[in-house]
Amino acid sequence: MKDHTTRIAVVQPAAYSGPREAENVDRAIAYLGEAADAGAQIVCFPELYPGPANPVNEFDADVLYQEARKRRVYVIRGRREEASDGAFYVAAEMIGPDGTSLGSYRRTTPAGPYIYRDIDVWNFDYQAGNQLPIFETPHGVVGLLVCSEVYVPELARALAHKGAEILFCPAGGLINELMPTWQIMIQARAIENLMFVGASQNLYGVEEGLGMIAGPESVIAQLSVPGIMIGDLDMARQRWLRQEQEKIEMPKQYRVVPGTLSWKDQIDSVQ
User: Fold this and answer.
1) Domain locations along the chain
2) For an engineered disulfide with 190, which of 30, 41, 109, 214 has Cβ 3.0 to 4.6 Å away?
3) How far apart, in whole angstroms, are the C-alpha atoms of residue 29 and residue 258?
4) Which pLDDT value is given to residue 1?
5) Are 212 and 199 in contact (CB under 8 A)?
6) What are the residue ranges in the chain where pLDDT is below 70?
7) Considering Cα of 158, then 159, then 164, then 170, what sign does the dihedral take?
């Protein structure tokens, strides 16, 4: 894979719920078009967006396959996938620029099943998944987590060791009091894994958004209102940071400790 700059778009939509949830599809198509026009190569939507998130609502969001093919971009959309006994997986699906599904990451933590019945916006029984896939693209290796999994460092670390260079963590909504620590976690996952991390949430009303794109050495973009964040990711720099080792030198060539992923064997040997 050649070194290059990858342009990503992380969408933080003004989202509809209840009887108007189906309107999210048209809005998603508009956001996707805006992101593609801005040159984005990978576009990420939040958790369970555009839906349907609530089982009482039925509509087809598969038009995103056609839009991905039309725009020649990778698209990460949120969806429910049927599990068993009336329960559902919470999935982040990766769609390729040819308009086909490349697979899904199904949220693995917590075990549930309580969490999605907490609010009427979703209100379904959740089944945890048990796989951590990565998705290789010409623009970088992508890993996916969902929402509060950003607080679980082991998941992001496992994806990094599998080769993930860009981590998307689409969130649901109503983050509220968690906002300060949530944004710290986004930055922490980027710093400790020497990866790029993008996250956003659905905005159902007047709440503030958590939108952020973070790199190992800096925050690239932030957004607290509905809209799209565009981030240019220096993949050459990121790969150099992973290959380089820390040196005692002045001035330093980096703003983060490099090479930390290569410490795994040493850490594993510590009792």
Assistant:
1) 5-269
2) 214
3) 39
4) 42
5) yes
6) 1-3, 271
7) negative
What tokens appear for 223 in the block? 């957004």
Tell me how crowded residue 250 is: count the other CB atoms within 10 A of its CB.
5
CA dihedral 50, 51, 56, 60 (to 10 degrees): 90
Extract the tokens encoding 165: 């260079």
Going by C-alpha positions, the residue among 68, 13, 12 that lies closest to residue 40 is 68
5-269 placed in CATH 3.60.110.10: yes
Cα–Cα distance measured from residue 177 to residue 140, given in angstroms and rounded to the nearest whole number: 33
In angstroms, the CA 183 to CA 263 distance is: 26
- What is the three-state SS of the chain? CCCCEEEEEEEECECCCHHHCCHHHHHHHHHHHHHHHCCCCEEECCCCCECCCCCCCCCCCCHHHHHHHHHCCEEEEEEEEECCCCCEEEEEEEECCCCCEEEEEECCCCCCCCHHHCCCCCCCCECCCCCCCEEEECCEEEEECCHHHHHCHHHHHHHHHHCCCEEECCCCCCCHHHHHHHHHHHHHHHHHHCCEEEECCCECCCCCCCEEEECCCCEEEEECCCEEEEEEEEHHHHHHHHHCCCCCCCCCCCCCCCCHHHHHHHHHHCC
35: its two tokens: 């992101």
